[in-house]
Design brief:
By secondary structure, the protein is of the alpha/beta class. About 45% of the residues lie in helices and about 15% in strands. It contains 19 helices and 14 strands. The strands form 2 sheets. The protein has a 7-stranded parallel sheet with strand order 3-2-1-4-5-6-7, with helices on both faces. A 7-stranded parallel sheet has the order 10-11-9-8-12-13-14, with helices on both faces. The two termini are about 20 Å apart. InterPro entries: Glyco_trans_1 (IPR001296), Glycos_transf_N (IPR007507), Glycos_transf_N_sf (IPR038107), Kdotransferase (IPR039901).
């Protein structure tokens, strides 16, 4: 089913503007030359094998991390992967996660723009047996071209919140075309399952399974292995209470630092590990820390006895900071970003606090709250909630273990989703 004419015309008109947009941001795009070429169907790295290829599109770092266990199953089953990302952080994350396979069983590039001609060149190059879109991002022309060429398309770990549903519903013809062209939708929660069907998806094509986030945790033993690549922090954090505020966005770092200042009056030896979400904000966040004795990971500085705030301005080490901490505050939830993944700290038996903005993981938050490992808080209550966990380490340990057991019970989500996908291959 072709997308509406207005959409096809809009994409054609916007192509040169998007190229100009990238050119204007060139100074901030370290992979600009590759991005500009690959976005428009040129300069792809060669494929030197005849194995079946699955194209997986994961918008950015978060989606790629979520999809990682599913992609590992595909590789183990003999398929090769071509991974595309929309952002520079997603592109870099693919390079990190698959460093040993890149150029062999895995290749990656920036996603092609949603133009029929560009898609044609891209598909001729990679010749995928299937395409898997992770979580949310769909493109109408892409789905139409795939359907026309008989290439199955799957939306894995699919999520459609009420807000997103309302936006899609305003463009009924466009949404119906995308739903019609998808071969399979694997919804990660009940609300998404219902919303996809109301939007026009064939109920026979919509399945439901636990989120891949339940499978994406590397676990305590593997996390500790990462210390081989880090300064030996353990000597500096013994017998110190520690809390982490992770994946923070603008506004949340100030909240963390204000809260930490109050907590230091009660716990003078307390350490805050602060982990901003986006690398481009690292220096900005560092400038907020100057009222404390602080050190930075990016400068190779260690945690020492006098450190009050440790700015973990690095990528790919989040699980290590969770491992070190007694309490984890998960960001993107005290500002309207929808909340980041609380399963990561809970998988390490760490109790969690989140704000009120959790639409991205609402069911997971409810499940964790039910077993007592997660508390929700507003800005004013953050101090009291952190203090409550720090004052009661035995209760925090019990809550963490209950949460960890729940994670372990649901850790097979990647196998469930892969078995659904495999039937189409």
């Amino acid at each position: 089913m072709r997308p509406p004419l207005y959409y096809r015309l809009a994409i054609t008109a916007l192509k040169p503007l998007y190229r100009l947009f990238l050119a204007c941001k060139k100074a901030n795009l370290p992979h600009y030359e590759r991005e500009i070429a690959e976005r428009f169907g040129q300069g792809y790295l060669p494929i030197s094998h005849d194995k079946p290829v699955i194209w997986c599109h994961a918008v950015s770092l978060g989606e790629l991390n979520t999809a990682y266990p599913l992609l590992r199953r595909m590789l183990a089953d003999g398929y090769h992967l071509w991974i595309t990302s929309t952002t520079q952080t997603g592109f870099n994350r693919a390079k990190m996660l698959f460093k040993d396979e890149l150029g062999k069983s895995v290749q990656h590039s920036f996603a092609p723009v949603d133009d029929v001609a560009v898609l044609g060149r891209f598909l001729v190059h990679i010749r995928p047996s299937m395409v898997v879109f992770v979580e949310t991002e769909l493109w109408a022309n892409t789905l139409s071209v795939l359907a026309k060429q008989g290439i199955p398309s799957v939306m894995a770990n699919a999520r459609l919140t009420q807000k997103s549903f309302d936006s899609y519903a305003k463009f009924k013809g466009l949404s119906q075309s995308m739903m019609a062209n998808l071969s399979l939708i694997i919804a990660q929660d009940e609300q998404s399952y219902r919303n996809f069907i109301v939007l026009g998806a064939n109920p026979n094509k919509v399945k439901q399974a636990y989120s891949l986030k339940w499978s994406g945790q590397i676990g305590k033993a593997q996390t500790l292995d990462n210390f081989n690549n880090l300064t030996d922090f353990t000597d500096f954090v013994k017998n110190r209470p520690i809390w982490v505020m992770a994946s923070t966005h603008e506004g949340e770092e100030r909240l963390a630092l204000e809260t930490h200042k109050r907590l230091l009056a009660v716990f003078p030896n307390l350490l805050l590990i602060l982990v901003p979400r986006h690398p481009e904000r690292f220096d900005e966040v560092a400038s907020l820390c100057t009222q404390f004795v602080y050190h930075r990971r990016s400068l190779g500085e260690s945690i020492v006895d006098s450190t009050q705030v440790y700015l973990a301005d690095s990528m790919g080490e989040l699980m290590v900071w969770y491992e070190l901490s007694d309490v984890a505050v998960v960001g993107g939830s005290f500002v309207d970003k929808g909340g980041h993944n609380p399963i990561e700290p809970v998988s390490l038996a760490t109790p969690v606090i989140m704000g009120r903005y959790v639409k991205n993981c609402a069911e997971i938050v409810r499940d964790f709250a039910d077993v007592g490992v997660l508390m929700q808080s507003d800005d004013d209550g953050l101090y009291d909630n952190i203090k409550a966990w720090l004052d009661n380490p035995a209760l925090a340990k019990e809550a963490g273990e209950r949460g960890q057991r729940l994670v372990q019970e649901r850790a097979g989500a990647d196998k469930v989703q892969f078995d659904m996908i495999r039937k189409l291959l």
